[in-house]
Amino acid sequence: MFPNFDPVAFHIGPLAVRWYALAYMVSFIIALPIARRLNRLAPEVATNEQVDDFLFYAILGVLLGGRLGYVLFYRPMDYLSHPLEIFKTWDGGMSFHGGALGVILALAYFSWKTRLSFLAFADRIVPVVPIGLGLGRCANFVNGELWGRPASPDLPWAMIFPTGGPIPRHPSELYEALTEGVLLLCVMLFAASRPQVRERFGFLSGLFLFGYACARSFCEFFRQPDANIGFLSGGTTMGQLLCIPMALAGMGLMVYAMRRPAQVSAHV
C-alpha cells in the first residue's frame, strides 16, 4: 500500500509549505553552488555574480514555462473554457517540457542582456537541472500523483495508490527520479568534468536534451498517461511525443558542437 504521506511538509503560521514547493526551493539551493563551481572551470564563461543573477530568471522560466506548458500541451480546452483556472497553481499542473522552454528563453534573454555566449553559458547551467527533476519526481511520489501503469502483483515494489484504484501499479515517479534525476545528473557532471567537452560549446546542452528525452521516453512505458489525453497513435504518449523534437535538437546541438573547433574563450 502507498504510504499515507501528508502533502504538506510543514506550516509557517497560516502558510502551508507543500512538498512540491519545497522540492523546487531545495533544488535551487543545491544547484546554485554546483553551477558556480562549474562556472569556474576553464574556459571562462561568466562571473559567479552572473550565475547568481540568473537564478531569478531561471525561477521565472521554470514556473511560468512549466505552468503554461501544462495548459497548452495537456489541457488546452479545459483552460480555454475556464481561463481563471490557469492561475490556480496550488491545484497542481506543471509540464517539464514547458519549463524547459521557459528556461531556454530565460537563458537566451539573460545571455543577450549580459553579452554572454548563449551556448557556453547554457552548458554551465544544464548539468545541474537534473537535481530539480529528481526532487520534483520525489515530490510527485509523496503526493501520490502521476502513478504508473498496472503492474504484476509479484513485482516487489508495485504499489496500490489511493487514487489509482485497487490494482498494483508501477511507482513510475521513482523510476523518473532515478533516471531523469540521479542517472542524468551523474552523466552530466561526468561530461562537464572533461575539458575537451567543455570546450565544445553546445555539447553539454545537447547531451542534456538528448539524455532527458531518452530517460523520459523510457519511463513513459511505465507511467499511466494523463486521463484527459490517454494513449496516442501507436500506443505512444504525449510525453514521448514531446520528447521527439527534444531528442532531435539535442543530437543536432552535439553534432554542431563537435564540428566546430574547440573554444578557449566564451566571449560573444
Automatic annotation (TrEMBL):
<dbReference type="Pfam" id="PF01790">
    <property type="entry name" value="LGT"/>
</dbReference>
<feature type="transmembrane region" description="Helical">
    <location>
        <begin position="201"/>
        <end position="218"/>
    </location>
</feature>
<comment type="similarity">
    <text>Belongs to the Lgt family.</text>
</comment>
<dbReference type="GO" id="GO:0016740">
    <property type="term" value="F:transferase activity"/>
</dbReference>
<keyword id="KW-0812">Transmembrane</keyword>
<feature type="binding site">
    <location>
        <position position="137"/>
    </location>
    <ligand>
        <name>a 1,2-diacyl-sn-glycero-3-phospho-(1'-sn-glycerol)</name>
    </ligand>
</feature>
<feature type="transmembrane region" description="Helical">
    <location>
        <begin position="238"/>
        <end position="258"/>
    </location>
</feature>
<comment type="function">
    <text>Catalyzes the transfer of the diacylglyceryl group from phosphatidylglycerol to the sulfhydryl group of the N-terminal cysteine of a prolipoprotein, the first step in the formation of mature lipoproteins.</text>
</comment>
<comment type="pathway">
    <text>Protein modification; lipoprotein biosynthesis (diacylglyceryl transfer).</text>
</comment>
<feature type="transmembrane region" description="Helical">
    <location>
        <begin position="54"/>
        <end position="74"/>
    </location>
</feature>
<feature type="transmembrane region" description="Helical">
    <location>
        <begin position="94"/>
        <end position="112"/>
    </location>
</feature>
<keyword id="KW-1133">Transmembrane helix</keyword>
<protein>
    <recommendedName>
        <fullName>Phosphatidylglycerol--prolipoprotein diacylglyceryl transferase</fullName>
        <ecNumber>2.5.1.145</ecNumber>
    </recommendedName>
</protein>
<feature type="transmembrane region" description="Helical">
    <location>
        <begin position="12"/>
        <end position="34"/>
    </location>
</feature>
<keyword id="KW-0808">Transferase</keyword>
<keyword id="KW-1003">Cell membrane</keyword>
<dbReference type="InterPro" id="IPR001640">
    <property type="entry name" value="Lgt"/>
</dbReference>
<keyword id="KW-0472">Membrane</keyword>
